[in-house]
Amino acid sequence: MRAVTIREKVLSVDDHPEPALGHGQVLVQVAAAGLNGADMMQRRGHYPAPLGSPPDIPGLELAGTVAAVGPGATRFNVGDRVMGIVGGGGQAQLAVVHERILMPVPQGLDLVAAGGLPEVFTTAHDAIFTQGGLRSGERLLVHGGAGGVGTAAIQLATVAGAEVTATVRNPDHHDAVAALGASVFSPEQFIEATTGDPQSLAAIGGPFDVIIELVGAVNLAGNLMAVNVNGRISIIGTSAGAKGEINLGLLMMKRARIYGSTLRARPLEEKALTARAMEKMVLPHFATGALTVPVAETFPLEEAVAAYDRFAAGGKLGKILLTN
Ligand SMILES: NC(=O)c1ccc[n+]([C@@H]2O[C@H](COP(=O)([O-])OP(=O)(O)OC[C@H]3O[C@@H](n4cnc5c(N)ncnc54)[C@H](OP(=O)(O)O)[C@@H]3O)[C@@H](O)[C@H]2O)c1
Predict the structure, then answer these.
(1) For residue 86, how far is the Cα from the chain centroid?
(2) Is the pTM of this model over 0.85?
(3) 211 CA distance to ligand 1 centroid (A)?
(4) Ligand 1, closest atom to CA 37?
(5) End-to-end CA distance of the chain
């Protein structure tokens, strides 16, 4: 089979043997696989795949049809439309996924868009609801609102009845992100609004009960000013810095929490729990059309180098996908 390949920081599309099916596993004929920041890191020689995932085939999410089921796998049949997160190996013609982390593709959602759904919607749902406890009527702030996780977080919180503010760097995408349900501001407007004046903070929709940080430490001081009493700050992305200074006094006075999270390295049991939460609480909203996967661009698998370069250039709205 053909698969995107990263060896010694060189990205190519190469031939690989078909993956072997183990107990409880499903062979998926991949229709589309989303690109993520983790793939960019893997290309640069960082963030290797966890044990048990193909070490040289990137790809954290995919959608396709079931080509075969392994011994003991009972959840799906050949031909079913499925999608899921994987530790690696998604950007290929075929991928092996444990049936417990696969989800059915909601009716009405095409397989290409579905290939960009699992990683970003699972990450956003887990961060702001499962861990952050966001409730209807609360206020969410999303930094990096035009990206894959950002557009997912805005839609999920809007559907749940929260009030959403987002920061978006590219002014061309402010209107489109606002159409997903958020009040949109530039990163500079956020910094200006978080110098300590409550009215400036209120003007951008704060203080915030939950903040999902998809950009990095540049927002740390502002987030501590912007978080509400009893608020929660979820650290998910650090491309714009991983180190910063925390005003512990402010954190304490606000009785706030800062927590970090990753999906990729979690054991099967924990990944399966996120998939069941998605099936119960998120996927029904795709079937009604209330949630969508914004697709910025698609590339054939053989053009993976161009797709990676497009992702790394930034400035997109939503997901970039490889298709078969
Ligand atoms: N912890 C986890 O389990 C997990 C899971 C998924 C993703 N992540 C990480 O979370 C982050 C977001 O993921 P994603 O899939 O949404 O990525 P994405 O699609 O690339 O979106 C990132 C967004 O952040 C913006 N951004 C980046 N640097 C910025 C800066 N210095 N100032 C202002 N905005 C900036 C980007 O704007 P431009 O387009 O203008 O650059 C883009 O809109 C990434 O770092 C990713 O690696 C973590």
Answers:
(1) 13
(2) yes
(3) 14
(4) 47
(5) 11
CB 5 within 8 A of CB 56: yes
**Taking the CB of residue 48, how many other CB atoms lie within 10 A of it?**
13
- Torsions phi, psi of 286, nearest 5? -75, -35
User: What are 226-283's pLDDT values in tens digits?
Assistant: 999 999 999 999 999 999 999 999 999 999 999 999 998 899 999 999 999 999 999 9
pLDDT of residue 48: 87
Single-letter amino acid, residue 70: G
The DSSP call for residue 194 is T
84: nearest Cα among 272, 261, 234, 259? 272
Q: 């304490």: which residue's tokens? A: 252
- The answer, yes or no, to whether any atom of ligand 1 lies below 6 A from the CB of 142, is no
Give the residue from 46, 38, 59, 34 showing the smallest Cα distance to 9.
46
Q: Write out pLDDT tens, residues 9-62.
A: 999 999 999 999 999 999 999 999 999 999 999 999 998 888 889 999 999 999
Would you put residue 316 in left (φ > 0), alpha (ψ -120 to 50) or beta? beta
CA distance 95 to 28: 5
Residue type, 67: A
pLDDT band at 89 (very low <50, low <70, confident <90, very high): very high
Query: 242 in ligand 1 pocket by Cβ < 6 Å?
Result: no
The minimum-distance atom of ligand 1 relative to the CA of 235 is: 1
User: Would you give the DSSP letter of residue 176?
Assistant: H
* pLDDT of 119 higher than 90: yes
C-alpha 161 to ligand 1 mean position (Å): 24
